[in-house]
Structures are given as C-alpha cells and as structure tokens.
Amino acid sequence: MYSERDMLEVNFRIRRGWLVLIPVLAIFIAAFVFALVKRNHTLALVALPLLIVAFIYGFVAHLWPNLRYRRFLRDMADGLSRDVRGVIVNVAGEAELQDGAMVLPVRVQLTGADSAAQNGASALAERIQQLEAGEDTREERIVYLNASKRDLLPPVGRAVTLHCFGRHIRSVEEA
Questions:
Q1: CA distances, 131 to each of 20, 119, 126, 134 (Å)
Q2: Nearest to 112 by CA among 101, 98, 123
Q3: Mean pLDDT of 5-25
Q4: Is there a contact between 91 and 108 (Cβ–Cβ < 8 Å)?
C-alpha cells in the first residue's frame, strides 16, 4: 500500500512549506530590525507579533502535520508487523486523525485460529467457558486504513490477511 512515492510527496510538501515560510519570516524579521534601528516603536509593535503569528501558523498548520506524517511513514516502513486474519465487517465512512495520518476505522472479525493465537492461554480458557455457556464468541478487531488508500482495500465481507504495524494496515492480501 505504501511506496517510496508517498515519502517523496510528503518530503516535497515539507520543502514547499519551508520555501514559503522562510521568505515571509524574513520580511517580518527585516521589518522588525528596521523598526529597532530607526526606533519606530509602532512598527516594532506590529512587526514582532506578526512575525510570531506567521511562524506559529506556518509551522502548526502546514509543516507539523507533514512532519508527523513523514514520521508515520518511516515507522510503517521500518517497524515490526503482525498479521491479522479475518473477514472485513465494516469500513467507517468518515476519516479521523490517528498518529499523524487521516485514517478510516476498519472492523475485522477474526478467524478462530487467529483469535486464539493472539489472545494467549488465559483468554483461551475464558473462550472455552463462553463456548460451554453458549455465548457468542466472535471476536473483532478495529484496525486503521489510511484514508488515501481506501480503494486498495477489498470490499466488505471478503476474507483477508492484513499486515499491520501497530493498529495501522500496512498491506492487504485477500485470502
């Protein structure tokens, strides 16, 4: 799902953000220094807050989200992965922000072998008690799909193997 192109795009957005922000900040710094040299208090009182606001807005609104997303992509490429096998139950229609990326929550009903392997011995004993009591033992997980990769996910109802990094889907294989 993720490729080198994703990293190149986010690096381009970061570089473009700096190329816009630096000249704007340079103008306000020059105005502030000019005001200090000429002892123009009014210009200094206007230039300094504008400089601070421009830096904060430029960094928080444009650079920080891209820096977080680049860190997310690096983690996805280098981090440990685990496999989740099951059937896709639901894909949310509305994206939310998780770990610097806009994601869609995906509910996956685990297959029996996968759910027992992920839960360990104590959960297996609890599952046996639930079976004896006749309770519903279906187990679901919620994992997150990058909203820009929605078209790469198979439709609801398909059996899949999801390769995940943490809670995020790294790649998908249809079973």
A1: 62, 16, 9, 5
A2: 123
A3: 95
A4: no
Please give the structure tokens belonging to residue 138.
């279906």
b vs e for 79-96, b when ≥16 Cβ sit within 10 Å of the residue's Cβ? eeeeebbbbbeebeeebe
In eight-state DSSP terms, residue 134 is T
| DSSP state at residue 156 | T
CB 149 within 8 A of CB 1: yes
Q: What is the pTM of this model?
A: 0.70
Per-residue pLDDT band at 28 (split at 50, 70, 90): very high
C-alpha distance across the termini of the chain, in Å: 17
Torsional class of 79: left (φ above 0), alpha (ψ -120 to 50), beta (otherwise): beta
At residue 140, does pLDDT exceed 60?
Answer: yes
Q: Of 101, 98, 92, give the one whose Cα is nearest residue 73.
A: 101
> Which residue reads 């005001």 in tokens?
35
Give the confidence band of 116 by pLDDT, cuts at 50, 70, 90.
very low
Confirm if 102 and 146 have CB atoms less than 8 A apart. yes
Instruction: Report the C-alpha gap between 108 and 88 in whole angstroms.
Output: 5
